[in-house]
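Supplementary Note 3. Input sequence used for the single-chain structure prediction.
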Amino acid sequence: MEAASFLLNRFYANPNSFKVVAKSDASPVTDADYACHQLFLQTLSSLKLQLPVLSEESSVAEMQEFEHQKSTAYWLIDPLDGTAGFVKGTGEFAVNLALMMNGHVIAGWVAWPQQELVCWSILGQKPLRGQFFFGQKSGPEALIRRERLNHAAAPLVVTSAGEGKTSAILIAHLQPYLPQLEYFPSGAATKFCLLFAGQADFYPRLGRTGLWDLAAGHALLKSRGGEIYTLDGKPLEYWPRQSLYNPYFLAVASAQHELVPHLIEAMSQYSAPIE
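The predicted structure, written as discrete structure tokens, is reproduced below.
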């Protein structure tokens, strides 16, 4: 994760070093995405644990082959989550790596390169989790400085910084149901770092995401008693399913939070199609 972060930071520091093109779904992809994708393939192939790899930057043929094979164990990666923020220079982009087994995530790592931060977890009967800084920073400057010991503090919702219109619709939809919520925009999987650190409570999403966008962050949340729920109130599952893309969801730092069912109910009233 450190090597991937250093690689992306080098590209990020020199915008002229990479080209930006549009995928078939109109989302951006850069030379940095592909370079980090290749780095992961080389690194994971050198491990004794030889498993298939599914990446956001896998080819269409590779994704179709993966869906056909239905591997029970595999690596799931997003080599550059938040490409739009990377291109715009917001600093809010991430690297996601998850280990999947029988349709469940069993370990996850999320790196926030610009903050030189890696959050990780390994699930099991006694989950292990932690975070570390691999550079000179003493802590992520973008983490919200918020006193969470004050029980009167309003629950904090992180929304997608790169989807201003969609996020505005989401907030407008939720406010009549839960007017006590506060909102804060954050890009890519950096939202999971905030939830993992206890700096935010909820991440609702009414937009398109892939398996690679959520699995690593899901592992982080599960290790601290959190969860990702679909709008039927069930935990998000990764297999079997008909698509590599996710339904609408609510990610929570604590599955025991009293507002979880109310948020799911409010979100379930939103019936527009996924963009």
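The domain at 2-133 is CATH 3.30.540.10 (Fructose-1,6-Bisphosphatase; Chain A, domain 1). The CA atoms of residues 5 and 113 lie 5 Å apart.
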